[in-house]
Amino acid sequence: MLSSRKGSRAWNKSKQGDMPADPPDRKPRRRGGKAAKRGLSHELVPVLVAADRSGATFTAVLPAVSAVAFTAVLKPVIGTDALLVTDGCTSYPACAAALGVTHEVLNQSAGERGRGELHIQTVNNRHSRLKDFLRARRGIATKYLASYLRWFQLAALRPDPTPRYCLAAAMGG
């Protein structure tokens, strides 16, 4: 997701009160916009979306696209008997090794949409639905992204949530 400091009044102020203000790393975007470079860059905030065969979906804001970040986020939610099916990101093999799970890579850029029963179309569908959900909110500040991900889990993925599910979603579970 594109990083957004929407509504931030302290854009040029440093975190230390007595330090001089750091210059901004870019001009403010007035109406959304897109990153200056294609692919991963410092202008994007990484969001992990994972789904299992039962339809359960997990989303998380990551500090970086790295095996360490993937492992820290996935360790509590993935079992050791799981099969991790991913795209071609180079951080996933190290993450799978750290988690102790089996790993399969599908190269979508080479036209490999699936291999037998293995596919990542469910996750691609969740990506699309998440982007549509966030687009309808007309842009959100990055500092609220985790809350919007929980709202997405609650509102967009559950047509009739139970009170227990609502409470778990509100608490970040």
Can you put this structure into words, describing what you see?
The protein is of the alpha+beta class and 173 residues long. The protein has helices at 67-74, 92-99, 121-135, 145-155, 163-170; strands at residues 47-51, 57-61, 83-86, 102-105, 114-115, 118-119. It has 5 helices and 6 strands. It has a two-stranded antiparallel sheet with strand order 1-2. A two-stranded parallel ribbon has the order 3-4. Helix 2 (92-99) links the parallel strand 3 (83-86) and strand 4 (102-105). The radius of gyration is 18 Å and the shape is globular. Residues 14-23 have low confidence and may be disordered.
Order of helices and strands: EEHEHEEEHHH
Cα(first) to Cα(last) distance is 22 Å
Helix content: 25-40%
Give the number of DSSP strands: 6
* Physical arrangement of strands within the biggest beta sheet: 1-2
Structural class, from secondary structure content? alpha+beta
Note the total helix count.
Answer: 5
Mind describing the biggest β-sheet? 2 strands, antiparallel
Estimated share of beta-strand residues: 5-15%
Low-confidence region ranges: 14-23
From the alpha carbons, calculate the radius of gyration and give it in angstroms.
18 Å
The geometry reads as globular
| Mean of residue pLDDT values | 80
